[in-house]
From TrEMBL:
Keyword hit for Glycosyltransferase: yes
Superkingdom of origin organism: Bacteria
Domain Glycosyl transferase family: 181-331
Keywords: Glycosyltransferase, Transferase
Pfam family, one: Glyco_transf_4
Coiled-coil regions listed in the entry: none
Name of the protein this chain belongs to: Glycosyltransferase family 4 protein
Annotated ranges, domain Glycosyltransferase subfamily 4-like N-terminal: 14-169
């Protein structure tokens, strides 16, 4: 069975690319499938996340190409690859890609799985994402959500004709097991510098935290279009020496190992990989409790704090408390892996195996 993951650009460093590569590598290692990636384009010569050497990669365009104006050409190019490579199942790792994949079902016989990485209510950057979700509900062979809450949103709002399956993102175990750095004075946050990730709100939180703790630093790992605005906001808050935009880093593990806590200020998420990584590394977490995601990972008051989404003052209070009470940080760190079993790769691969088999059997 040839399973192809359809991506905007699999060489990027985002959470969607991370989990897609993790899953593809695990399926390739299993040996039961031929696995490939198909991207609209590849902007970087080397993928940020290492891809198994047995996995083939294809790009529809030789350079970055965006826009609905290329729609029919994109469908034609994708159809050619699906036919030439005898793709059986196409997994769209961003629901917006359904608009290119679903038209191929009749002409090629390919099965299409729509993999939702946000949640039903969010349409970041693309207003017609709502239309593709409804289209997928009628024509896809399956929809995969990251949480049960989002699966219920799909069932309640669009009444899909295909199965909707909740499969969490996997959490990679860290070996050797991390040792929590009780003396660390470093807070980390990570993600693309975009509206979704709420780093503008993070600056406001940091402005209530860092002046009280001049020996602490807060590092933001990631790059994106909001960098100039964030740099101005940080400078205006007078905390440029403590709140630092590190940009895209390749040694994430080193930052997790040396941090005292992880903070997430996203406006919305699906199931954030950065929180799973923080959890795997044994870090206390403070996170906005946005509609889906954080509450599946963080047990409030056990291994972290969940704060009402957008409540900057409460977020600052919780971060200040963890700084001021080291024993609380250590307690959260000891319980960091509570509930981790539901994110095990073994469990998640079994769920994907079952889904792929189901899609093929229902086709026959």
């Amino acid at each position: 069975m040839h399973v192809a993951f359809f991506s905007g650009d699999i060489t990027r460093s985002g959470g969607t690319e991370n989990v897609s590569v993790m899953l593809a590598n695990a399926l390739a290692e299993d040996g039961a499938y031929a696995i490939s990636f198909v991207s609209l384009f590849e902007a970087n010569p080397t993928p940020f996340f290492p891809i198994d050497s047995s996995i083939s990669r294809f790009a529809l365009y030789p350079k970055p190409t965006h826009g609905i104006q290329h729609y029919f050409d994109t469908v034609r190019r994708l159809r050619r690859i699906v036919r030439q490579q005898h793709v059986d199942i196409l997994i769209d790792i961003d629901g917006i890609l359904d608009m290119y994949a679903l038209p191929l079902k009749r002409s090629t016989g390919v099965k299409v799985i729509s993999w939702e990485h946000f949640n039903y209510h969010q349409n970041p950057g693309v207003p017609y994402r709502k239309l593709t979700r409804r289209w997928a509900a009628r024509k896809a062979d399956a929809i995969v959500t990251l949480t049960e809450a989002d699966r219920n949103l799909y069932n309640d709002n669009v009444h899909p004709k295909c199965p909707v399956i909740a499969i969490a993102n996997p959490m990679q175990p860290v070996t050797p097991q991390p040792v929590y750095q009780t003396d660390s004075h470093i807070i980390i946050s990570s993600g693309r510098l975009t509206y979704q990730k709420g780093f503008d709100m993070l600056v406001e939180v940091a402005a209530q935290v860092l002046p009280r703790h001049p020996d602490w630093q807060w590092l933001i790992l990631g790059e994106g279009e909001d960098r100039p605005a964030l740099e101005r906001k940080i400078a205006q808050a007078g905390i440029a020496g403590q709140l630092i935009l590190k940009g895209r880093v390749e040694n994430m593990a080193d930052y997790y190992r040396n941090a005292a806590m992880f903070v997430l200020t996203s406006r919305f998420e699906g199931l954030p990989m950065v929180l799973l990584e923080a959890k795997a590394n044994g870090l206390p977490i403070v996170s906005f409790d946005c509609e889906t995601g954080p509450a599946d990972i963080v047990r409030d008051g056990v291994n972290g704090d969940l704060v009402p989404e957008g409540d900057i003052d409460t977020m600052a209070e919780r971060v200040n408390r963890l700084i001021d009470v080291p024993n609380q940080r250590e307690l959260y760190a000891r319980h960091a892996l509570d509930g981790a079993e539901k994110f095990s790769m073994t469990r998640i691969i079994i769920q994907w195996h079952d889904l792929l088999l189901r899609v093929v059997q229902e086709a026959n």
